[in-house]
Amino acid sequence: MRILVIGQSVRNIALSARSAGHTVVAADCYCDLDLVEAVEAHRLRIEDLFNAERVNAIIESVDPDAVVLGPGVETVRINGYSVMNNSPSRILRVSDKLWLARWLEDRGYPHPATWEREPPHDRRMILKPRRGAGGFGCRIFEGDEVPPGYIVQELVEGIPASASVICDGSDARTIVVNEQLSGTAWLNANEFRYCGNITPLDVDEDTRNRIARIAEEIVAGLGLVGSNGVDFILTENGPVVIEVNPRFQGSLDSVELSTGISVFQAHLNAFDGRLPEDVRNTRFAGRAVLYSSERIRVDCDLRRITSCIADVPAPGSVIGMGEPMLSILAIGSGRDTVMSALKERRDALVSSIQRHG
């Protein structure tokens, strides 16, 4: 198939589609080196993401067999083309953290207490945008009033985790349970910002199976299709559901490196009612998102420092403080091996960038 993948940043989705044997055209706002070297790529402006007419015009110019909508455009209505995503209305509903909290509570799933207004003041709480992903805009709640467009949730302590789930709209299969990196200091990630995954989650099999079953029930119950994710906090008393992501997840790289499965092909197959079977982890894998601690200009191909990176900015790119710089990848026989490799590559990158700018 000739696939167009369009969104703010689509490198992982586009390369997964290409590896699955499809002809891929990508349109995003970064056109990183590893994207443009692998597929036909077109640069978008940020304002294009909020202009449905412009998005549809780009799709018409490519004339693909199917479209996959990535970050920033997942709720745009597309005219005249097959769209391999959850419907915009379903995405908007599931991505509404207040609506989801009530849905989970009604069905008895463990979930943090959630308030739209007038939260109690006798516990630690986190302020979140009512819509949004990746931990962006989340912070400890210290005020008296909840700003418009935000919710407050009880802060749950534990290990951040996620389940990668493929669903056909009524039945679901968890392909893997991941550890989630969040607010990691050595990646310059503030507070609750998403910054990567280690696959699989390094806990006992019974715990992973319990998380997998809960995730399958939730994704199937919501009627989602394709690749979807469920975020958890693993507490001393078991897993607590945090969010549902009705889209491809940032864990795509580590999932494919760990299992060998094509997440993109599993996503497409689900639209035909076919779910993956007997997916197993053959090794540990990690993806870490390195954020910039200052405003920098990239003056060389950063793959000269280490080849184990992705989302590689082109020379001449300017990255603002707090913005994602690139992704670091690693594989190994265990979690500690993967984490050590990620940190070593991070140190080499930061040292070289500080020397040469």
Strand order of the largest sheet: 13-12-9-10-11-14-18-16
Number of helices in the DSSP assignment: 9
Task: Give the total of domains.
Answer: 3
Give the name of the CATH architecture of the largest domain: 2-Layer Sandwich
Helix content: 25-40%
- CATH class of the largest domain, please? Alpha Beta
What's the CATH H-level superfamily name of the largest domain? ATP-grasp fold, B domain
What kind of sheet is the major sheet?
8 strands, antiparallel
Shape: globular
The averaged pLDDT comes out at 94
Number of strands: 18
Low-confidence stretches: none
Radius of gyration: 20 Å
Structural class, from helix and strand content? alpha+beta
CA(first)-CA(last) distance: 41 Å
Beta content: 25-35%
Structural overview:
The termini are far apart. Helices cover 27% and strands 29% of the residues. It is built from nine helices and 18 strands. It has helices at residues 11-19, 33-36, 52-62, 88-94, 97-106, 205-221, 252-259, 263-271, 335-356, and strands at residues 2-6, 23-28, 40-43, 66-69, 114-115, 125-129, 139-140, 150-154, 159-168, 172-182, 194-199, 225-235, 238-245, 284-291, 296-297, 309-310, 318-319, 324-332. The model has no long low-confidence stretch (mean pLDDT 94). It has an eight-stranded antiparallel sheet with strand order 13-12-9-10-11-14-18-16, with helices on both faces. The radius of gyration is 20 Å and the shape is globular. It has three domains: 2-85, 3-Layer(aba) Sandwich (Rossmann fold); 86-279, D-amino Acid Aminotransferase, Chain A, domain 1; 283-357, Alpha-Beta Complex (Aldehyde Oxidoreductase, domain 3), CATH 3.90.1170. With 357 residues, it is α+β, with helices and mostly antiparallel strands. Helix 2 links the parallel strand 2 (23-28) and strand 3 (40-43).
